Batch of 2 targets.
Target 1
Amino acid sequence: MPANLPPQYFDTEKKLQTARTPREKIKILEELLAIVPKHKGTEKLQALLKTKIAKLRFQSQLRPTVARHEPGFHVEKSGAGQVVLVGPANAGKSLLIASLTGAQPEVGDYPYTTRSPSPYMMKYENIKIQLVDTPPIAPDDLETGFVELIKTADGVLFVLDLADPDPSSKLEALLLRLKEKRLEFFPQNAVLPPDSASVVKKTLIAANKCDFPQAQENFALLQELFSDRFNFVSVSALRGDGLEELKRKIFSLLDIIRVYSKAPGKKADLNDPFALKKGSTVNDAARAVHKDFVEKLKYARIWRKALLQGQMVNRDFLLEDGDIVELHI
């Protein structure tokens, strides 16, 4: 089948002759990829363009750069919390995102398919959690914007490839590389070190491709070497194994509770909770409902399963997941 490329393609292709930097070439190649008609006759050309983009991105990441904040790495937080996915090339982050969220990020069997951070929303029961797909970590360089994205996230999900011959070494290399950037990682229930010079992030590890040969052996070795440092979930983004457990652990990683607000004499909307940090009080719930409520609040009533049924409480009352709060101002 002929490619039938439009004239615009050839005009854009000429720009490659004058492009000097990898960044300029990548931009032109991405334009070409967008112009190419999507049909069977252009499949090889599309694959060639994607491969060239991947190689240029890898080369540009190997080059030392002056530390800078990359505006393209900023992702506005949304939902009940933001979890950034981090991992080596071809670990399956994008496919895992697709399986968890139902979205359709670009998925390919070549390295560096993901070129910039992309946010997606994962539904967990009656809340949504933001998952951020990221480019794979290059062996010799990390852009400052990528590091800042990890530092400001509410949690980090490492994605490892159980089909890799040695995922344990890949994990160790990632941890060392990120430690150089003053980033350290601990499980959700860890006692974090005081006065650390690094930014400490609570972390969960998704060991992907559990349906591949040798996956169980690799998973057992990962747990043997790192079980004292991390919590693991064995998953298959392709087949769906372990995804519900992973969702529960991502929710747990965020250390949040769901609190429902109700007006006096009315029922609470149990489909629209407020997501608050564990340890939050009635005062915090009032602030989440409306900033003016904090000053005007007189008292609150709490419903908590069968334990509390409209009990009057003060501002400092500690809330739990599932509490219904009736604010009186």
Target 2
Amino acid sequence: MVVLSAEQIRAWDEYTMQHEPIASIDLMERAASTCYHWLHKNHYLPNSFAIFCGKGNNGGDGLALARMLSKGESRVVVYILEFGHKGTEDFQLNLASLHNTEAEIKFIQTPEQLPFLDPREIIIDALLGSGLNRPIDGFTSNVVDHINRSGNEVISIDIPSGLFVDRSSKGNQVIKANHTLAFQCQKPAFMVADNAQYFGKVQILNIGLHPAFLETIQPAFNWIDLEFIKRIYKPRNAFSHKGTHGHALLIAGSYGKMGAAVLCARGCLRGGTGLLTVHIPRSGLDVMQIAVPEAMCDPDQHEEVNGIINTELKKYAVIGAGPGIGTGYETAQLLEEIFSSYQRPMVLDADALNLIAEKNFHDRIPKGSILTPHPKEFERLFGSSDNDFARIEKAVSHARSLQLTIVLKGHHTFIADPHGNGYFNSTGNAGMATGGTGDVLTGLITGQVAQGYEPASAAILGVYLHGAAGDLAASHLSQESMIASDIVDHLGMIVIP
């Protein structure tokens, strides 16, 4: 699956009509039929429906669905926004067909005509669709507000009306849907937290758009799902040994924060690194050797912080740094020393990122490195953003200019690679919003780099596996009771066919 822009979605429709070939009215029928079958499968039929339609193609989808619902013995009332124009040709054809059913058709054009909505009615939003290019206003805004205030269950066709597909909708009047029946592909609008209150549960419905179209474009963003992962995953050679899978160094922990180091180390080992050395404060030596016996330890000369490293860094395939290290003077000097002497890609998280921001070390990060900030850490590194889309654009820009991979953590974690490509992750859940899960991710990604994955691929694979383990943990436990160790414990159960 892919994540496409509004223009690419429109072009895919056109390509399908030209190359299948299929008439636009028949493609609309196919889309409406797919929605009807989803409603049937999910036990919405028969029922009472209030369908709100504009006069564009999204409204045409709504009219076609209204006809199917009415013939299927549901009570249907259709409310059409009247602005004095006929609407698209396909809208008019579907309106003519609807007159041959039991559905009620009402044209509304003033706030006084807004209907009373029975609480039992299911509202279908077919007002505007994905072609929206400006915020809604006027009477349409009144309609959206009326629907949102009703308290009824709302199902949007393709995208909630008022929501832009591929740019910020902050300040827009937008339908708040319980379900969104989106056609064919994911949309950028569904990826960002700013829009979470609008789209509810997104169902991607296959309406049979021509698959060859995807070979003609560069998608706006890539969608990291199992099919994507299977293209980059490298199964182990039967004759490999521990040296084949790399030697990773983690710099983690400080007095009182050895848990971060333990979680990071466990994530790295479960991620598949052949050998792991952990550089920790001297006071954490017993903790690490007892909690993670598979890891070798390189204790710092300092008792409570990491500040001096005497081991030869060149022997490590990758260095991961940051979880629990603090931002003290000694640790800042250590990070600066590593940047000066180690030129391979690193994985940098947590306090390593905070030190980079504080000391303005951005240009000293080794090329190809992977940064894994949450939104606040990203803001410290690169400045504030007005909205989620601006933050994504900033991540893409800085990843390209600094030649890094940036993992911007969130519900659909976003990854920007050095070539200007962007990726959204499909796995993970709200149960992972708990302390320590980021430490596990740092170790997991470090483990992928150690095994020889190119940095962007390592980040993609690590993020996917991290979320998949979280999903598996949630299915066995509950989101509320999950802790970071549960993610580590379920990593080994993830199977890539």
